[in-house]
Amino acid sequence: MLKRIYVDNYKSLVNFDLSVGQINLFLGPNGSGKSAVFEVLKKIQDFVGGVGKTDEIFSLDDRTRWQSSQHQTFELDIEGSEGVYRYELSIELVEKWQKPRVNYERLWFNDRPLMKFGHRFKSPK
Hints:
Layout: E1 2-8, E2 16-19, H1 34-48, H2 54-57, E3 71-79, E4 84-92, E5 101-109, E6 112-118
Antiparallel strand pairs: 1-2, 1-3, 3-4, 4-5, 5-6
């Protein structure tokens, strides 16, 4: 079951950290990020599922407009019967490259690394 989602630099979501329960209600004014949360979940699902290439799923236009950061960061905590998985993904969106690329991708189980790819490797929060 999804327990937590973290998003940084995606549309209106900046340093957005949400813990979720079994039942959740998303309320807020237009442009506050309700739909963006579900878009992120879909993009991660497509990316992990191999539905498309990185540049087909992530776009330079998806960055937060008022920030200059070229990185988007996503984290999901998913609870299973034996413990908690944490999936981390960082996308670099550098305009001179013309398309996004993976900065790092990591998977943890109960704070132990299962898989790592990319430039940086750190312990989960």
